[in-house]
Amino acid sequence: MGFWKNKRVVVTGGNGFLGRYVVRKLEKRKCGNILVPRSKDYDLRTSSAIEKLLDEAKPDIIIHLAASVGGIGANRENPGKFFYDNLMMGVQLMEQARLFGIKKFIAIGTICAYPKFTKTPFKEKDLWNGYPEETNASYGLAKKMLLVQSQAYRQQYGFNSIYLLPVNLYGPGDNFSPSSSHVIPALIKKCVDAKRRGEKSITVWGTGKPTREFLYVEDAARAIVLACEKYNKSEPVNVGSGLEISIKDLVGLIVSFTGFQGKVIWDKTKPDGQPKRRLDISRAKKEFGFKATTDFKAGLQKTIYWYQTQGS
């Protein structure tokens, strides 16, 4: 905990899903001062707002979690917005952090930065071997530029920035909005709501064949805090669980855990997204001792319970 004593930390996106867990971890580690900027007070797409934030907060560390993000549907509808918002926030925030002499900058990337066809498990060296999956390429590439910037700034200015690549997150407090949620909260909402209304079926996008890896949000927050404390290199680091599951099997688990008795209809006119996703997570364990500890089924049941009791 000595690392965090007297540290001033800005957590962008600290009121979001992952951000709230990161802030709690910092509080448990007795972090000296934590500032969570709100978008209504600081539009991080503009350099003037960033300058104001840094001048007022005077942070030692910035953890950049803020993002414009959503599931496949939201990505298809907002490619321009997601590209612009994420690129402008990240690039300008890191530049101003450098100018202000920030001691450490933690950039959070996305698994969407990987090429569409990447051999599993995804290794960090594979990041530049092709173009991302089309439905989320704008978001993935905007976030990927933070890696380029991070490495360039370390090379030229000696700026201490690191870049983490978390896999798909889930857990209590997730975004369950139908227009922007990711696959797990979207499926939970479909099943729980359909059961409550007595509906006979739910419709799920795609074929069910793609595979995904998921990481419990509390594990992700712990990984970020550990990396803050222990990692100081330019190479990107995957953050995941190492577990791969097909969308079809995922649907089966959620149907079972929610008690939904109806039929699952697969809408094959809708996109599947990236065919396969599973990360090589060896670098995170080697560099800062991170390993996911939450059992996937247990985490899924906690998430379902949260939505049943608090999310609707």
Describe this structure in words.
It is a single chain. The protein is of the alpha/beta class and 312 residues long. It is built from ten helices and twelve strands. The strands form four sheets. It has a six-stranded parallel sheet with strand order 2-1-3-4-5-10, sandwiched between helices. Helix 4 packs parallel to helix 5. The longest helix has 21 residues, at 79-99. The protein is globular, with a radius of gyration of 19 Å.
- The number of E-state strands comes to 12
For the record, give the distance between the C-alpha atoms at the N and C termini, rounded to a whole number.
37 Å
Strand percentage: 5-15%
Structural class: alpha/beta
Low-confidence stretches: none
C-alpha geometry:
globular
Largest sheet: 6 strands, parallel
Helix fraction by DSSP (H/I, runs of at least 4)? 40-55%
Instruction: Please provide the ordered H/E string of secondary-structure elements.
Output: EHEHEHHEHEEHEEEHEEHEHH
Radius of gyration: 19 Å
